[in-house]
Design goal:
The protein is α/β, with parallel strands linked by helices. β3 and β4 form a beta hairpin. The N and C termini lie far apart (99 Å).
């Protein structure tokens, strides 16, 4: 009996082993990787090159901007799915072709009146007509972009402006109000609003979406799904920089879990589409530069990063190029998730002194912001609005060769050789170390929720009334200044200050850099074409890291310029630290 039991046990063991061998083993699906990931430069374009279409009705005119990017450090392009809140195609359950609901583009009988971006109202109507012509000719704008990007080996992402504020402008942005917003004002932030609400405070009504409403969140989630179903994009870019106000004042903290849940849902859509397409799809988000200020708006960015709700996070201001960005803190939060952190900025800058022959938007400011980001752990740079000539350094030298010219037209090109070189340099930290840079204090002239508070203009406080080190401006320079000077990489540094209303009080102005006094009496001077003047102090005691610049008035006596309550007061308008390299 025991013998039979042993035989049965042996037989059972053999059969189980054979059966186990016949069970198919699960294999991990290998997904085709995302092109050019991780990217050096992520380049955002709003697609206004659709303006070029009507001239020739030639799809190649829509992609010359992509052609120009070959050979630069741009690896991924993100393009808007439409304009403001609407789309570049018809038939979506979540939106319309932008402008389809506008019957009268010229209610004021003045087609020359200014609109967004310096365009006239006739320009805005022409933009809609271009988009409509692309569709009517049987084309699809986004597919044209994707197909050309594939030929050029560029990654291509669909970009969504999550709460564009242009529509708040009652005088010139009304045309961007979609039919859904006009019909469902209960889904908007509405009335009343607080200061800083994308100029909605001028009319005390915001036409931006209220993300506390589930219908609003479901609309965007539906768009994410539709776009990844309809198009072969490499991923999605959610641009919360335009704009960062998603909830009504007083309701933001309680909606932090709401927005985090929305991001989890967005991530799930991307993962599902990734599985269906058997290739990697990435989700990136452009968010405020200050993690703490973002939390006050409803963004729990550190949770997003730690949980890996995005593949890359871009800390970029909705304002001009800023340099106080929480890169280090974001990188620390990403230590266990592998989320990539990018430093982002508009190619327009706050007011800066003339540099290298340029008086507006000097690229030296962008270089400083980018190098600070790299030194703090950023994986690369995100560029916003670089496609607009008005957002790059100017004036352009007469006779400068341009590229990206639409085929068969006389429209000027958009990029100079210098612009394209900048697109190479911004993707390479080593190159930036050997180029001139401008580190500055950002101005109140362009400051938005989610930014750090601006440091200038600053009316000069009086030392005799208690002003001291706590009044100092802080400018971070992530470079080894001492080593750079020793090995000849850094030729010199400069402190540049623009002061106004100091005609009678200049002798009372005291300036210290990192606690050491600097002599303004012997400072040089530089002016721009508008007559604005900067004092230039050569080789101030600048160091790598955070520099403090203190500018105050000596004594207790009220400055003579301030003769009555509303009279001008001596003011520091701008403060810059210039690092000059080479010979």
């Amino acid at each position: 009996m025991n013998r039979w039991r042993k035989c049965l046990l042996i037989l059972s063991s053999v059969l189980l082993t054979v059966a186990a061998c016949q069970v198919p083993q699960e294999t991990e699906t290998v997904l085709k990787p995302t092109p050019n990931w991780p990217p050096r430069i992520i380049y955002n374009t709003d697609g206004n090159w659709a303006f070029n279409y009507l001239a020739n009705r030639d799809p190649s005119d829509l992609t010359v901007i992509l052609d120009a990017l070959q050979g630069t450090a741009v690896d991924i392009v993100t393009v808007l799915v439409g304009i403001d809140d609407d789309l570049s195609w018809r038939g979506s359950p979540h939106g319309q072709l932008w402008g389809d609901n506008i019957e009268d583009w010229d209610p004021d009988d003045d087609t020359a009146v200014a609109s967004v971006g310096g365009m006239s109202m006739s320009d805005v109507e022409r933009l809609h007509r271009n988009l409509a012509a692309v569709v009517d000719d049987g084309h699809d704008l986004l597919k044209i972009y994707i197909d050309r990007a594939r030929e050029l080996n560029l990654g291509m992402f669909a970009s969504f402006r999550m709460n564009d504020a242009h529509v708040n402008l009652e005088d010139r942005g009304w045309y961007g109000r979609s039919a859904r917003k006009l019909e469902r004002t209960d889904l908007l932030l509405g009335h009343p609003v607080w200061w800083g609400a994308g100029q909605a405070d001028r009319w005390n009504f915001s036409w931006q979406w209220n993300y506390a409403r589930k219908e609003v969140r479901d609309r965007f989630l539906g768009l994410f799904d539709e776009v990844l179903t309809r198009y072969d994009f490499d991923g999605l870019e959610l641009d919360f920089g335009r704009g960062g106000l998603l909830f009504r004042t007083g309701e933001r903290f309680r909606n932090i879990p709401t927005l985090t849940g929305f991001m989890r849902n967005a991530r799930e859509i991307v993962r599902r589409k990734q599985s269906e397409k058997s290739r990697e799809l990435k989700l990136i988000a452009r968010v405020p530069v200050s993690i703490d200020a973002a939390l006050e708006l409803g963004f729990d960015l550190e949770t997003w990063i730690r949980e890996g709700l995005v593949d890359a996070v871009i800390l970029g201001s909705p304002s001009y190029c800023v340099q106080r960005i929480d890169i280090e803190r974001a990188v620390a939060a990403a230590s266990g998730s592998g989320v990539l952190v990018y430093t982002g900025f508009d190619s327009s800058t706050h007011a800066a002194s003339p540099q290298g022959g340029y008086e507006r938007n000097p690229v030296t400011v962008l270089r400083a912001s980018a190098l600070n980001g790299y030194k703090q752990g950023a994986a690369g740079v995100h560029l916003f609005n670089y496609g607009y000539r008005s957002h790059r350094q100017s004036p352009v030298r007469e006779g400068a060769e341009v590229v990206a010219k639409p085929v068969g037209t006389e429209r000027p090109g958009h990029f100079t050789a210098s612009d394209l070189q900048d697109l190479k340099d911004l993707g390479d930290a080593k190159s930036l170390e050997r180029l001139d840079r401008c580190y500055y204090a950002e101005s109140r002239a362009m400051n938005f929720p989610g930014d750090y508070p601006p440091q200038v203009p600053q009316q000069l406080s009086l030392a005799g009334r208690g002003a001291g080190p706590a009044h100092a401006i802080r400018i971070r320079v992530d470079d080894d200044i001492a080593a750079g000077r020793a090995d000849g990489r850094i030729r010199k540094t400069e402190l540049r200050l623009r002061l106004t209303h100091v005609e009678k009080s200049l002798g009372r102005v005291r300036c210290e850099v990192n606690g050491e006094g600097v002599d303004l009496a012997s400072a040089g001077r530089i002016r721009n074409r508008k007559g604005e003047e900067w004092l230039v102090v050569e080789n101030p005691p600048v160091k790598g890291g955070v520099n403090t610049v203190l500018v105050v008035l000596e004594g207790k006596k009220t400055p003579e310029e301030h003769t009555y309550r509303r009279a001008p007061w001596p003011t520091l308008e701008s403060c810059e630290i210039i690092v000059r390299t080479g010979s």
